[in-house]
TrEMBL record:
<feature type="compositionally biased region" description="Basic and acidic residues">
    <location>
        <begin position="38"/>
        <end position="53"/>
    </location>
</feature>
<keyword id="KW-0472">Membrane</keyword>
<dbReference type="InterPro" id="IPR006665">
    <property type="entry name" value="OmpA-like"/>
</dbReference>
<dbReference type="Pfam" id="PF00691">
    <property type="entry name" value="OmpA"/>
</dbReference>
<feature type="compositionally biased region" description="Polar residues">
    <location>
        <begin position="55"/>
        <end position="71"/>
    </location>
</feature>
<feature type="compositionally biased region" description="Low complexity">
    <location>
        <begin position="366"/>
        <end position="379"/>
    </location>
</feature>
<dbReference type="InterPro" id="IPR036737">
    <property type="entry name" value="OmpA-like_sf"/>
</dbReference>
<feature type="compositionally biased region" description="Basic and acidic residues">
    <location>
        <begin position="299"/>
        <end position="319"/>
    </location>
</feature>
<feature type="domain" description="OmpA-like">
    <location>
        <begin position="237"/>
        <end position="354"/>
    </location>
</feature>
<dbReference type="InterPro" id="IPR006664">
    <property type="entry name" value="OMP_bac"/>
</dbReference>
<feature type="compositionally biased region" description="Basic and acidic residues">
    <location>
        <begin position="351"/>
        <end position="365"/>
    </location>
</feature>
<dbReference type="GO" id="GO:0009279">
    <property type="term" value="C:cell outer membrane"/>
</dbReference>
<feature type="region of interest" description="Disordered">
    <location>
        <begin position="268"/>
        <end position="392"/>
    </location>
</feature>
<feature type="compositionally biased region" description="Acidic residues">
    <location>
        <begin position="228"/>
        <end position="238"/>
    </location>
</feature>
<keyword id="KW-0998">Cell outer membrane</keyword>
<feature type="region of interest" description="Disordered">
    <location>
        <begin position="191"/>
        <end position="240"/>
    </location>
</feature>
<dbReference type="InterPro" id="IPR050330">
    <property type="entry name" value="Bact_OuterMem_StrucFunc"/>
</dbReference>
Length: 530
């Protein structure tokens, strides 16, 4: 078994290959480039032969040890297919720290996996709308550093350890990627070194020699909704699903289009018109009230009514396939009125064209925004301010518990052309230790696994459209995971202390000034996306 060198006096780290799917930690941004970096050293203090590239990204503390740690991330291209990540953690305190549970994902939906390994890292792949994660072997292990041994989890005062993983590489013309980890803030625009990594010093076998190690590209899904709830758009790597509320389209138990439906249908027709596809699928769905004898034909008739309207509105040749599902395929489980409202829908499903990514331009929701216009979305872009100037205060009862929190934005950065990463600290002013999950979670019917802070939204002030935190699907496609901080993987916030959190949200590239709605916190307005 190969060993991983460390810069502390502890024994060398044993390496196996282990894949974990999972929870994300918390976040801060850094774009600092480290220069004049020291070389890695063996346990006895001698050089391990691995010189860090000058483009390493530094000074990201561990979420669980914000005052006593520093991390450095380096990326190396290995041939045309592989990307090697070297993640050095330095203990800047006078006491030992443990990284137990910090370095692995808690994502679900990937089958059996081994925990306690450096699988908690992935880069955001815009071209494939995916999170590229460490290679996985059949036994559930990833091509990464193992941390099962207690000594592998412990970092002595003033010491450092390096953890490593192998992932798929982006195309050769891509020189930098943004990386999220389970243990730190996101790393935005990390340069990729063309220097050949020293796999022996990192304790990694060559991926070409690692039997049956397979790339792991987990699909990322974008989601947004109009301010009035009349439509919800969900985009994965293959389709754009426009879920139209039947509460707006139809009267109860009716299939005739109402006069109020014209605006939302015109928006949907525009999206069909602007796509290059020749075939669109339309599905009708009801909630779980009423009988199948009523719901099945009603859902089919409603799908046909929407088809008829789109045929009139779309000025090019498109064929439409319709089907009614009754209540058989709900979007959300549960019997709450909110869940049922979202399940009552007609879905217009547009296959992705060759470009195949999340929306590049904001939808035309101008009917909800008003105002004069010097852009295609129907309103003027407001003047922005730095995100770091924004804060919000929450003092109320949350899940039967009185809380007092301050939220301070620490970053809002554009990632690739169609995404944004935001980070923020939560300070606990309450009288006892608290977890902020209840204040930052999504609606109660959310199906995202774990306890993520997935209730954070970006609001376009021009259109009032809400862009929700993205979610990630494992190979089984059955479980939603959040590319955001998971509160079940971190300790609660001590009285008077602060911790940092993050969210990744798909955002059209022409949206540059936004409002932030973070769960139950009051809205923070007119923040510039850098």
């Amino acid at each position: 078994m190969r060993k991983l060198a460390e810069t502390s006096g502890f024994p060398l780290l044993a390496l196996t290959v282990a894949l974990v799917t999972g929870t994300t930690g918390c976040a801060t941004f850094s774009s600092d480039s480290g220069s004049d970096q020291e070389e890695g050293k063996d346990a006895d203090g001698s050089s391990d032969g691995r010189e860090k590239p000058a483009s390493s990204i530094t000074n990201q503390p561990l979420t669980e040890h914000p005052q006593s740690s520093e991390t450095e991330l380096s990326l190396y291209r290995l041939g045309e297919e592989h990307l090697v990540a070297a993640f050095e953690v330095t203990n800047t305190s006078s006491e030992n720290i443990s990284v137990w549970g910090d370095l692995d994902w808690g994502f679900k939906g990937g089958g059996d996996f081994v925990t306690e390994a450096f699988s908690g890292i992935g880069w955001i792949d815009e071209a494939n709308q995916a999170l590229q994660m460490p290679y996985r072997r059949p036994e559930g292990r990833c091509l990464c550093t193992e941390t099962e041994d207690s000594l592998a989890q412990r970092i002595g005062a003033g010491d450092s350890k390096t953890f490593a993983a192998v992932m798929s590489a982006p195309p050769s013309d891509v020189s930098e990627v943004s990386v999220i980890t389970s243990s730190t803030s996101p790393f935005v625009s990390v340069p990729i070194s063309e220097e050949k990594p020293d796999l022996d010093s990192l304790g990694l076998p060559h991926p070409d020699d690692a039997s049956q190690a397979k790339p792991q590209a987990w699909e990322m899904v974008a989601s947004s909704a109009s301010e009035d709830g009349s439509d919800e758009v969900v985009e994965d790597s293959e389709t754009t699903n426009i879920n139209l509320s039947t509460d707006v389209l139809f009267d109860v138990n009716k299939s005739e289009i109402t006069s109020e439906a014209s605006e939302v249908l015109e928006r949907s027709a525009k999206q069909v018109e602007e796509s290059s596809v020749s075939q669109v699928r339309i599905e009708g769905h009801t909630d779980d009230t009423g009988s199948d004898e009523i719901n099945e034909p009603l859902s089919e008739e409603r799908a046909e009514s929407v088809r008829d309207e789109l045929e009139e509105l779309v000025d090019r040749d498109v064929s439409y396939e319709t089907e009614g599902f009754g209540s058989r395929e709900p979007l959300y489980d549960g019997t709450s009125e909110k869940a049922r409202e979202r399940n009552r829908r007609v879905s217009v499903i547009i296959p992705k064209d060759e470009e195949g990514t999340a929306p590049k331009e904001r939808p035309d929701d101008s009917s909800t925004a008003g105002g004069s216009s010097d852009n295609s979305s129907g309103g003027e872009q407001p003047a922005g301010r730095p995100a770091t100037e924004a804060s919000s205060h929450l003092a109320q009862e949350v899940i039967d518990d009185q809380v007092d929190y301050d939220l301070q934005m620490t970053g809002l950065h554009r990632v690739n052309s169609n995404g944004a990463l935001l980070t923020y600290t939560i300070t606990n002013n309450s009288e006892k230790d608290k977890s902020p999950w209840g204040a930052l979670r999504s609606e109660k019917f959310s199906e995202t696994w774990g306890m993520p802070v997935d209730g954070v939204k970006i609001v376009d002030p021009v259109t009032d459209r809400r862009y929700r935190t993205a979610y990630v699907l494992g190979p089984d496609k059955g479980t939603r995971n959040c590319p955001c901080s998971q509160t079940n993987s971190i300790s609660s916030i001590d009285v008077g202390a602060s911790k940092e959190f993050y969210n990744f949200i798909f955002l059209p590239e022409d949206v540059s000034v936004v409002n932030i709605k973070a769960g139950l916190f009051p809205v923070m307005e007119n923040l510039t996306v850098e």
